[in-house]
Write a structure and sequence with these properties.
Radius of gyration of chain A: 18 Å
Strand order of the largest sheet of chain A: 9-8-5-4-3-2-1-10
Oligomer: homodimer
Shape of chain A: globular
Chain lengths: 306, 306
């Protein structure tokens, strides 16, 4: 009778603010602020947090202190801290920090892969084959990502069959799960379900995650559409960090607060304490000196006037 | 296979920016700007536009020029211009302007009705009985609205059975359809579907509309959830007008641009030309001297770099 159907009972929210969010801030956020932010996110109940990346510091100066961030973070048995690694060199640096979970990123199109990681999709997968094998030998968990899975700023509409091939190859080389990303925030719910339907013919739902940007306002509707397909891993960014504050068009990642508010309101458990999560985002707002775009963060819970 | 199911083939978007939006602007927008805005909305393909209200000008000064706005608007056979009327006196003023469609507003709770229209829900329905009968005798179409249909800032969670009673009574006294409004932007998709499921036991889907605010980011997901229930009338506000720019917590109506982008992306026809709609909103942005919150308006269409 109710067309929402059977949503997952709980969702694993992967917090990407400290990496995907802060990487897009024009200024470097000091290491002590990052560490306080990440600790506050963990205190808020987030169990999967993307902390940083082991990429070339001259290319991504915002992530140059990832080693130091990992060194300072309090070890927590119940939290998985992830780092992005582009190659074996990055993996070695991650391993030296004691990182236990890493992510590898490729794309659905060669044009985007060339522009962002300097190689073709096939080239990146060849690199990742060795990276993932080495990481797994070291006991690490590995996530894979496919960028521009719906729309590529260079090639236009992504081919779902190509997305499927890349997802299958990432799983085949040993990724525990793969996140499909709407990098430019162009997808709408039916396109989301069409791609997921194709993927889920071959892949169990617990090996697929979704990563949405709210550039055109559709991110929460896309999360809902994904849950209806059985997806239970959702990336989100505290405060909606990840847009560029100086480019109004480049609105950022779907906000963790908004995702958690919607899911908990539907009876889908996230394990996240919204009030503590907002405290983490406000810590960052205080440092950045501006409001973050998350709507729930700005509005707070519905209140009853007395 | 695809859980979105059968969405309506087309949706009637009711543009509420000129009334619900501008009413919440701290400063009065000059009549010529309003008229140009409304004409631009009509040129953009919007066929239902809430133009103003015939309320006491000392209470709502932003709407004091509604008579003049109606007088100046170019008559269009294919556009229905609506006005809010609170009582017989307002209806008479509307009729004198040649208004052909009016809306009456009540609430799901007495506390909200008292605070906003100075009477109980029952009291308002008694008034509306004569207003609606008189309007229909004059050949007008009448829409009804139920505010705070999910959450009331005075009484907390609204009782869906009470919402159903009020909806049924508005239809019984002669409203063509009734819009249920999430006035404070608190609802999440499952709550939306639960209320609609209750209403649709007695009422055909084409007599129910939805009116969402994006205060906590859930508005487009709620629109999607409504469409899945067969609802095909959706209120929206150009640019997302309707929040108070000086109260960050009070984010406004769901933006027409974002609604249209999502619906057209799912193959649901709206008849709206997104580019022209954005031109209408930008006309208002130029007057207000600030960006409106609509995400699509800020981002524009997904572009392919060449």
């Amino acid at each position: 009778m109710i067309p929402l159907g059977n949503l997952p009972e709980s969702v694993r929210v992967v917090e990407v603010g400290p990496r995907d969010g802060l990487q897009n801030e024009p200024e470097h956020v000091p290491t002590d602020v990052k560490v306080a932010f990440i600790e506050a996110l963990a205190e808020g109940g987030l169990r999967w947090i993307e902390v940083g990346s082991f990429v070339r510091p001259d290319r991504v100066p915002q992530m140059a202190d990832t080693v130091e961030v990992f060194r300072r973070l309090k070890p927590r048995q119940d939290v998985t801290y992830l780092a992005l690694v582009p190659n074996l060199r990055g993996l070695e640096r991650a391993a030296a920090c004691g990182v236990r979970a890493v992510a590898v990123f490729t794309a659905a199109t060669d044009a985007f892969a060339q522009a962002n990681i300097g190689t073709t999709v096939e080239g990146s997968l060849r690199t990742f084959r060795e990276v993932v094998a080495t990481a797994r030998e070291a006991g690490m968990l590995v996530r894979g990502y496919v960028s521009v899975a719906w729309w590529c700023p260079y090639s236009g509409r992504a081919d779902p069959r190509r997305v499927r091939e890349v997802v299958l190859e990432l799983l085949e080389i040993g990724c525990a799960d793969v996140g499909v990303a709407d990098t430019v925030g162009a997808a709408t719910p039916r396109e989301v379900q069409e791609l997921l339907e194709l993927l889920l013919r071959d892949v169990p739902a617990d090996r697929v995650g979704v990563h949405f940007h709210d550039t055109r306002g559709t991110a929460l509707a896309n999360v809902l559409a994904s849950l209806q397909m059985g997806i239970a891993t959702v990336d989100a960014s505290a405060g909606g960090l990840g847009g560029c504050p100086f480019a109004p068009g480049a609105l950022g990642n779907v906000s963790t607060e908004d995702v958690v508010y919607m899911l908990e309101g539907m009876g889908v458990r996230t394990g996240v304490d919204l009030e503590r999560l907002c405290a983490a985002s406000r810590l960052l707002e205080a440092h950045l000196g501006r409001r973050l775009p998350s709507r729930y963060l700005q509005a707070g819970p519905p209140r009853q006037l007395t």
